[in-house]
Design goal:
284 residues; alpha+beta; two-stranded antiparallel ribbon; single chain
Length: 284
């Protein structure tokens, strides 16, 4: 096997969590968060059949970034782990005044991550960090006053697991958003247990056709309506992959000439390329 200067290429399952309001908490409250967070994560991992002791973890008091071993169960981390984490947070918060309740943002990604002197490096750790700190995810948790958890899934996790029916989540339980943080620009799907995430005021519009996604996992596409239809059909036929409707559901077929005084309709296609498959949306 030929190995480049960076060593062996590897994609890993990544988890990042962060507690709300840690910086403004007093010393006693910060200590409580530091005690509760690892316990709740360990309980959720155990309930989901995941061995948290095998994770490579970087903790920072109110947060944790974890790289799971190769071959870890993605389905377990996306669904039973998150559902158990939410249940654990709610139990922890029971009978506590609002200011003492613990609420977390969490993000899940599957992408390139290579061991480095201070942990892990590569596009994967960067992407999950940007998604975790993104405005839409922060606003989703803030807009749901009784929520204890807000979760963001990156493109490959949502499209290859949730949208394909590998979990018990319904795709419409998630809301697609644009993530713009520092140099990163991409998309993510949000879920807030107990809330209709589409009804939450995130302070920004849902993603439009003119938004480019991060170069690591996607590319913009432009084609004629007939070419787009062919590519769209090809995406449905790919093994283990498929078209993912946007927040408004499947895109309508491209319109032809209006037939009214010779006017025509210009149709633009945008797409996300994930492991050779294209997810298309349409705007006019």
């Amino acid at each position: 096997m030929s190995v480049g200067a960076m060593g062996v290429f590897d994609r890993r399952l990544l988890l990042a969590v962060d507690a709300r309001g840690y910086g403004s908490a007093d010393t006693a409250r910060q200590r409580e968060i530091q005690t509760a967070l690892p316990r709740l994560l360990s309980e959720a991992a155990g309930a989901a059949g995941l061995d948290r002791a095998s994770w490579v973890r970087q903790a920072a008091g109110d947060s944790e970034f974890a790289v799971l071993p190769a071959g870890s169960d993605e389905q377990a981390l996306v669904e039973p782990f998150m559902r158990r984490l939410d249940a654990g947070l709610r139990a922890h918060n029971r009978d506590r005044v609002p200011g003492a309740r613990l609420a977390l943002r969490a993000a899940v990604h599957f992408g390139p991550a290579s061991e480095a002197p201070s942990g892990f490096a590569g596009p994967g750790p960067v992407e999950i960090s940007r998604v975790l700190e993104s405005d839409p995810l922060r606003r989703a948790l803030a807009a749901a006053p009784d929520a204890a958890l807000a979760v963001a899934l990156t493109v490959p996790v949502f499209t290859e697991l949730v949208a394909q029916g590998y979990t018990n989540f319904r795709p419409e339980e998630f809301r697609e958003v644009v993530v713009e943080k520092k140099e990163y620009r991409g998309r993510a799907w949000l879920w807030v247990p107990g809330y209709d995430v589409h009804a939450l005021d995130l302070g920004n519009p849902d993603p439009g056709a003119d938004v480019d996604v991060d170069a690591d996992v996607s590319a913009s596409a432009s084609a004629s309506a007939s070419a787009g239809a062919s590519a769209h059909a090809g995406a449905h036929a790919g093994a283990g992959r498929g078209h993912v409707p946007g927040p408004g559901g499947p895109a309508a077929p491209a319109a032809g000439p209006a037939g009214n005084g010779g006017d025509s309709v210009s149709t633009h296609l945008y797409g996300t390329v994930i492991n050779g498959n294209v997810v298309f949306g349409i705007s006019k």
